[in-house]
Structures are given as C-alpha cells and as structure tokens.
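Form P-L/3: holo structure prediction, ligand adenosine-5'-triphosphate.
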Amino acid sequence: MLLEINNLEFSYLPDQKLFQDFNFSMEEGQVIALAGESGCGKSTLLSLIYGLHDWRKGEIIFNGKKLKGPKGNLVPGEADMKLVAQQYDLMPYATVFDNVGKFISNINLKAKNEKVTELLEAVGMEDFAKVLPKNLSGGQQQRVAIARALSVTPKLLLLDEPFSNLDTSRKFELRDKFFSLVKNLGLSVIISTHNLEEIIPWVDKVAILKNAEILQYDSPELIYQQPTNEYVAKLLGEVNVFEDSEKIRLNLDKNFYFPQQIKVADQGLEAEVQESRFAGSFFWNKVKLDDKVLIIHTLEKLEGKILLSFCG
Ligand SMILES: Nc1ncnc2c1ncn2[C@@H]1O[C@H](COP(=O)(O)OP(=O)(O)OP(=O)(O)O)[C@@H](O)[C@H]1O
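OUTPUT (holo model):
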C-alpha cells in the first residue's frame, strides 16, 4: 500500500466538525479521483496528506513511513510528494522555464533543458518559456504548475482541480498529454475534481466525499453501475432517480438510470415525448412516463409516443 490513512481527525476550528475517524488507502501506480460537492473537504484532504496541517488524531502512513505533518518537516510538504494546489505558488520573478526547472538539478544543464522543454510541450506552454507568471492567464499558470509537479517524478502527485481553469479545447489536449505522461512514468496520483466525467477514462478508482466522509470508493464502472445514493449518482452527471415505490411499480432493477441507459425500443414502457433538443453528439429529450418526467439521450430527434427499455 502506498498510502494509508487511519482514523484521522482534523478540523480547522475547535468546534468545527470535519474529518472524523476518516480512513482511506491507495496502491502504488494508481490514479484516484476525489470527487464531491464544493466544501466537502477535497482540498483539505490533499493538504493533510501533503503535510500542511497538523491532525488531531489518527495516522497517515506513506510508503511504509508514518508521517508527522508540518512539525516533522523543515520545509512545508513531504519530499516524495508534489501538490499542485488551487493557488499555483509559482515564483513570480522567475520565467516559466525557470519555474518548471525549479526542482531539476543544474549538474547536467543539457539534460535539464531537454526535460523542461519536454514538459512545456506536454502542457502546451513551449512558446511561453521566457515569460513571467504575472503575464500569464490563470489557466496558463495552472499548466506551468502541472509541468513543474511532473518535473521530478514524485512518488505521489496530488492535484487540486488541475483542469479547472482551462478552456474546453485546451483541456482535452492537456488531459490526454498529461495522463499519457502519468501512465508512462507509472505515477501515483490523487486528483480532485468537480467534474468527474472529464477525467473518468483515466482513473483507476473514484473516492466520493461528502461532509469529509467517503460515501463510495470503487472503480469507475462500479460507481456508474451502482452509485450508493442520489448524491453519488448526481456527481456523475444528469441522472433519472426512481423512488423505491416507482422502481417496484415499473419493475426496474435499480434506483438510478443515466440518460443513455434508457433506450427507445420496439417493446417496453410507453412514454410521450415532451421536448427533443439537439445537444451536439446526441439529442437531449424530456419524456413523460405516466406522471414521471425522464431525461433520455438518443441519436435521432424524437416525437410522439415511444417505447422505453431500461438497461443496466
Ligand atoms: N482555513 C480554513 N479555516 C476554516 N475553515 C476552513 C478553512 N479552509 C477550509 N475550511 C472549511 O473546510 C471545509 C472543507 O473545505 P475544502 O476547501 O477542503 O473543500 P473542497 O471540497 O476542496 O471545496 P472546493 O471544491 O470548493 O474547493 C469547508 O467547509 C470550508 O469552509
């Protein structure tokens, strides 16, 4: 096990209830997504692991060693980890190139130049090597911080919303390059996100956090097939929620169906189309089944009466 957190207790203020009896573990080489609504404790958890806060009780064991938190380190943070926080902490008077090269030894300057250039290319910032961070946008600064975190192949990389400031086209490009690099280097990563759908193809496991508690910790497939409750299901995207009574009445297998899991079929339950809107790669439809309004995705525009089949 690379990381093990046992019975951790932490809050910022004495009467605040945050992490209580918190447990978590991850294997080496895994990419873990940490998802949950704003304020559920994602950033705090990453900071605790990295050693920026003193916890009250419990233990964090990293690579077989019990961590001591801030009091155990001369400089903030664990040496074998890198944290890319939401404030990127770049050196303001050093160029982009020097920021990315900050942790790389100067002994072999040629190798250092090559490494920094490769990382800048990986995050699409090669044209900005000589620029100072203050002249960059938030998203560009974020990309520099990611490149710097990858410069020393840390044993554990902690990323707090790493793609939050990027526009969609940049995001797709960076995400692909970033995860290819992570997989090639065999890095272990915990990545917090507001938008699970964005990173799901690359993650090994998803930890869902609510009020600083883990509600579900499973593979992406299991999370999609069997979200433990409505909170988890809604983090995965738009979802149709059925009460237990509706589930029995309609003879369904589960309480949550994503729009693509309800299909138009030759046989099934009759529904009436209320709206059918072009949504890019699919049509977004509102349909009425008895009194219940459902959202379904189809490749064709719908109208009139249809038959629905529910898939697992
Ligand atoms: N310095 C602080 N002092 C007191 N309370 C804090 C402090 N920082 C965070 N909190 C509180 O701790 C809780 C967890 O905050 P945290 O930033 O870890 O959540 P998050 O899941 O990362 O949120 P977001 O997705 O919005 O970044 C919140 O209720 C927040 O208000």
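COMMENT: The chain has two domains: 3-234, 238-310.
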